[in-house]
Automatic annotation (TrEMBL), chains A, B:
GO biological process entries: NAD+ biosynthetic process via the salvage pathway
EC nos: 6.3.4.21
Domain of life, source organism: Archaea
Protein's recorded name: nicotinate phosphoribosyltransferase
Nicotinate phosphoribosyltransferase N-terminal domain ranges (all copies): 16-137
Originating species: Haloferax mediterranei (strain ATCC 33500 / DSM 1411 / JCM 8866 / NBRC 14739 / NCIMB 2177 / R-4) (Halobacterium mediterranei)
GO molecular function (one): nicotinate phosphoribosyltransferase activity
The family this protein is said to belong to: Belongs to the NAPRTase family.
Boundaries of every Nicotinate phosphoribosyltransferase C-terminal domain copy: 388-437
Length: 455, 455
């Protein structure tokens, strides 16, 4: 019964990337003829440790799922085997999304409790989106944020070192490898080593050489010579297979012998700051790329201590967001149709707040910096510019997705407008997200009403 | 240029899931007519913090990549645009793996420096596999280990609670969602909520209901009644949308009204231990599933403090292995053909040891427990049973992949043979991996030789 060939997600099984309970509930809504319009919010209740802001990312893939949603033959066959009703499955075969989606554009800083995506649709449709939308937006936002921290650290030092994602191999599976490249680009990276991501998203791809290239020749010198014979001035030589300083000298000797300027050398181990200075003495005109366990903290240390480098290649720490590997995105029902009107809705589960009703995210600036946000009811009168944009209306895409460089530009500009205290690598201050008075009143009164019903 | 539709990996772009430098090196090997046979080892230099063992997993997907490897039209077109040579690309179009693979069977405990996979092939072929093989085996091993820790904790308490993966939404992308379900099953889980994983791997799928189901009705009672009308005795009701104890009473009332035994209730928030006892007072005959931030530490606390539950649904902590979200698998060249003979090879990069040569992993048992391993040269005479098995010979699959229940059984049996001190959740003792005297001598003499060449 196991389909080895289906170990990856393809258009044929994409609709199955969902939790069983979504389908179970959908069948219940359908069979019980209970399909009110509902509004769901995707948001982060709390930001991960040491995160004063998150950079929203992943919207385009979430919307792609909604737009291309299709329950094909293979999916229906599996669900039939698992006991779903024929009539319900016939309904799925023709299912198309007919609702509305509003969202924060990718590259926008987002804070606690603010909806990144708001879906309003018949509940049967809105329910289905939960799993994949949290999955795609949560992960890309996590990585775009990690990347933005690295770019910000370089900018704060007045530097412009390049940043290239080298993390594919250590990402959590193949989709993470590809999506990390995209999210890192949004957060301010220059490119990726992942060729599939390059092809999928038009991201610049970069690469150097591995230790295995060096080892496969009888000497490091022969390895360098052969690579330079092949790639000439584009060559980037890995100099630390045996001894970094000796490797740097060999790289110089080969460049002199061939009478060319090589593009650069790469350093992948040891005391990076000290070695970078030594290498720079030997190869003053040659770019030096650093790729050993790089994260925003190591970049800070390197730059603060006067390390000399022209680029960094973060890997594992970037793609797993090692210091904060999770962000617990939730997708909660906040309003539901009753007798033709949308009524606010919330759950009370211990220690978890959900603000009811369709909302507005307002951002107030002062002196060119973000001063505070106001999370308000959708039509509430309050200060600040609305951050949510309309993406899908009545099932039709009405949003023009910006290209990735434009999203990166948005992220750079908006991260720079986020106050430095919020952007600190450790113990950032908490950004002020105020609750609009209308939303506050609605939350309090609904809570009171529900508590009195259930105590 | 960006292909939005290609945001997921499919058979058409799978070959591109690699780092650019692999392809650059491959072209260099090809054009420079340098394609010696090489042996690469995939291993973990260090285990993650608080891990005394790792459970090997992901081999079947890694081998699937090797077996189905194909550079089709779309891939060739992209590589052409990126300046690769026509002749090299023609070579790729007909490329098939012709080498040998030996590996640790999935479900086997693995320790520092032991090869999980050993590839011997023309270097051009062997080089390509690095990225995807580390990616798939690293991630699944990480999650199988996390899962095994949870199963082990339950077993140590003499219990048999069920474990179901509820993590899809918080996994790092869609592939992680699917592969986590598989790896968790290997590590001792009973099933997953991920429908795509169920279909792909024949894993049992489970689900309950979400808070949104409850909220979409005018009362919790109406929500329960409608669900029970639809699913009868299979119903598992979520009782903590408003108030857990009140929810449990409502569930009981609905079951009495309908005169059926419901399958269970689920608890997703609050003080789990205390609430589980209260709920058990109300619904003594009903299974209670616990799904709030579950990991092995929370399971231990729950069981130690007398919590009453019949199953756990770990999510985020499982699929991101939150307490140890990375394992730095490496894929290193350990031997290379020279004048027709395989010569051991190693790099010396600061602080990183690689043992040269094709190897043997021997496991020595004493009194039914693992006593020590010996990492030795392949043909070295030493104690213990060989752990590596032959998977591919001369490009042909010679290994019969066990089905998932058999792999799970192997993992359970072998984890139970791993000494308790190695299995501790915190600060485990380090398992004894000895270096065989032949390998030790070879390592020392090769190191000395390389150091004298490069100082």
């Amino acid at each position: 019964m196991a389909h080895t060939e289906y170990g990856y997600l393809t258009p044929e099984n994409l609709a199955l990337f969902t939790d069983l309970y979504e389908l179970t509930m959908m069948q219940g809504y359908y069979n019980q003829n209970h399909n009110p319009t509902a509004t769901f919010d995707l948001f982060f209740r709390d930001l991960p440790p040491n995160r004063g802001y998150m950079v929203a990312a992943g919207l385009e893939q979430a919307i792609h799922y909604i737009e291309t949603l299709s329950f094909g033959e293979r999916v229906i066959e599996y669900l039939t085997e698992h006991g779903f009703d024929e009539e319900f499955l016939s309904h799925l075969e023709t299912l198309e999304f007919t609702g509305d989606v509003r969202a924060l554009p990718e590259g926008t800083p987002v804070f606690s409790n603010e909806p990144l995506v708001e879906v309003t649709a018949p509940i049967l449709q809105g329910q289905l989106l939960e799993t994949i939308v949290i999955n795609q937006i949560g992960y890309q936002s996590l990585i775009a944020t990690k990347a933005a921290r690295m770019r910000d650290m370089i900018t704060q030092h007045g530097d412009e070192q390049s940043l290239v994602d080298f993390g594919s191999r250590r990402a959590h599976g193949s989709d993470a490898g590809i999506k990390a490249a995209r999210a890192a680009y949004i957060g301010g990276f220059d490119g990726t080593s992942n060729v599939a991501a390059g092809e999928a998203f038009g991201i610049p791809i970069y690469g150097t050489m591995a230790h295995s290239w060096i080892q496969s020749f009888t000497s490091e010198r022969a390895a360098f010579e052969t690579f330079v014979d092949e790639y000439g001035e584009e060559s980037i030589l890995l100099i630390d297979t045996y001894d970094t300083v000796s490797g740097a000298k060999t790289a110089r000797a080969v460049a002199e012998e061939k009478d060319i300027d090589i593009a650069g050398v790469r350093l992948d181990s040891g005391d990076l700051t000290a070695l970078s200075k030594e290498v720079n003495e030997i190869l003053a005109e040659t770019d030096l790329f650093i790729s050993s366990g790089i994260d925003e903290f190591k970049i800070r240390r390197f730059l603060t201590n006067g390390g000399v480098g022209s680029g960094f290649g973060p890997g594992t720490a970037l793609v797993t967001s090692t210091d904060a590997p999770k962000v617990e995105g939730v997708y909660k029902l906040v309003a539901v149709e009753e007798d033709g009107d949308m009524q606010p809705s919330m759950k009370l589960s211990t220690g978890k707040v959900t603000y009811p009703g369709a909302k507005s995210v307002r951002r107030v600036e002062r002196d060119g910096q973000y001063d505070r946000d106001i999370l308000a009811l959708r039509d509430e009168d309050c200060d600040g510019g609305e951050q949510l944009v309309s993406v899908i209306e009545d099932g039709e895409l009405v949003y023009q997705f910006p290209d990735l460089p434009a999203i990166q530009e948005r992220a750079r500009r908006s991260v720079s407008k986020t106050p430095p205290a919020i952007r600190q690598l450790e113990d950032p201050e908490r950004y002020d997200v105020q609750i609009g008075s209308g939303l506050d009143t609605q939350t309090t009164s609904l809570r009171r009403q529900l508590e009195s019903q259930h105590s």
